[in-house]
Amino acid sequence: MASTACFVIVSKNDIPIYDAEVGSAPKKEDQAYQHQFILHAALDVVQDLAWATSTMFLKSVDRFNDLVVSVYVTAGHTRFMLLHDSRSEDGIKSFFQEVHELYIKVNC
Fold first, then answer.
1. What is the pTM of this model?
2. Gap between the Cα atoms of 12 and 103, Å rounded
């Protein structure tokens, strides 16, 4: 996994359900807000892409400095958003698929 990451689950009504800062280095509080802002700003791009493609994994929908926003959209239009500095698309996709399986188990 990436050394810097912010993971958010957003409902189909754009309401954050879950938010987690993950990383090896201690984070400043203002940096956490910046990560949330970057992910929130990417929601419009995600909404446009979600209707334009049939794939669930939207690789890198936005970039900010060295950080990349990757998104996984479920069939119910819940968005799993990850802000990271990793280049491993296969690892990110596997992470999203595992989260999706757990999300289904919890909500069904």
1. 0.86
2. 14
Structural domains of the chain, count? 1
Cα separation, 103 vs 97, in Å, equals 10
Determine the Cα–Cα distance for residues 36 and 88; give it in Å rounded to an integer.
22
Per-residue pLDDT reduced to its tens digit, 19-75: 998 776 556 777 778 888 889 989 988 988 888 888 889 888 888 888 999 999 998
Q: What is the CATH number of the domain that holds 70?
A: 3.30.450.70
List the domain range (segments joined by +) for residue 71.
4-107
